[in-house]
Design a protein that fits this description.
Layout lengths: L24 H11 L4 E5 L2 E4 H18 L17 H17 L7
Antiparallel strand pairs: 1-2
Helix pairs in contact: 1-2, 2-3
C-alpha cells in the first residue's frame, strides 16, 4: 500500500513509530506533556489550553473518578459530551486507566 500521506509530514517527522520505546500509551503522553508543556494542545471556541494544563486537568479528573466517585475494578464509565473536543475525554480516560494499572486495588478490565 502506498502511504500517500507521508509526503505531507513536516521535516523531522518519522515515517514509523518505535513500538517498544514506551511501556504504555500513558508514558508517551507523559513525555509529550513534559516536552511541550507550554505549547497549545487544543484550541476551541476562543479557548486554548496548554499541554501542562491538559496534564493537570487529566490528573484531577482521574483523582475525581477514584477518590470522589470511588470507582474500582469492574466499574464502567461513559462520557457523554456536547460538540466539544473529544481528545480531552480520551486523554482523561488514558490517565485514569494508567492510574488504575499502577495501583494494586485497581486492575484494568
Amino acid at each position: 500500500m502506498e502511504k500517500i500521506w507521508i509526503k505531507n509530514y513536516p521535516p523531522g517527522v518519522s515515517e514509523s513509530v518505535n513500538l517498544v520505546e514506551y511501556q504504555s500509551f500513558a508514558d508517551l503522553l507523559d513525555e509529550g506533556f513534559s516536552k511541550f508543556s507550554n505549547s497549545i494542545a487544543f484550541e476551541n471556541m476562543g479557548k486554548s489550553i496548554t499541554y501542562k494544563e491538559l496534564d493537570i486537568l487529566s490528573q484531577q479528573f482521574s483523582l475525581y473518578l477514584t477518590e470522589t466517585l470511588k470507582m474500582k475494578k469492574g466499574d464502567r464509565l461513559a462520557i457523554q459530551s456536547p460538540n466539544v473536543l473529544i481528545p480531552y475525554c480520551f486523554i482523561w480516560s488514558i490517565t485514569f486507566w494508567d492510574y488504575c494499572s499502577k495501583h494494586k486495588s485497581f486492575v484494568h478490565t
